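Thiamine-phosphate synthase: structure, please.
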Amino acid sequence: MKLDKKDLLLYAVTDRSWLGGDTLAHAVEKALKGGATFIQLREKELAYDKFLEEAREIKALCKKYGVPFLVNDNVDIALAVDADGVHVGQSDMEAGNVRRLIGPDKILGVSVQTVEQALLAEQRGADYLGVGAVFPTGSKADAEEVSHETLKEICRAVRIPVVAIGGISKDNVLALSGTGISGIAVISAIFARPDIEKAAAELKALAGKLVMP
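Here you go.
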């Protein structure tokens, strides 16, 4: 599956810690109904068999809604379920190695914080970049903040699309106007909200205002 940058407009990253009694699949479907354009399954603690089962379930939902489905960090799971791709951070497997494992036709996303990291990820085969944290965030305790100026510089330096991530909410998202991003990636701004579908719809409308055509 080749990446269309329009797919990155509202990029939802899963987090089971916000679910209460709900299932992840149900929460993801609500996000998709609300207009999420991209889903990344992020599981740091789940046992392999459970992760595999969940990945199959979420992949089927994404297929139903015509939305790309990526797995965070775990290339084995991504290949086992034939996900649309993989997203890796700077401390995960190196992007070039991931590209060799997944082949040329899968989507590869890489998290970066600097122009140097961005250029290297592009050179190693990344299809898009996740840049952040662009605001303070509670979802990743170790996330370093990236200034909006650096975000702009990264967008200017690479030819591939860039998604902003980290602490983004409906209250601050428009502060990212003019940076050159193709979309926003959010976790708690969707999955921690009492009405996931409504939260996704509101964020998608706001993202549409700040993304350049």
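Notes: The CA atoms of residues 122 and 159 lie 8 Å apart.
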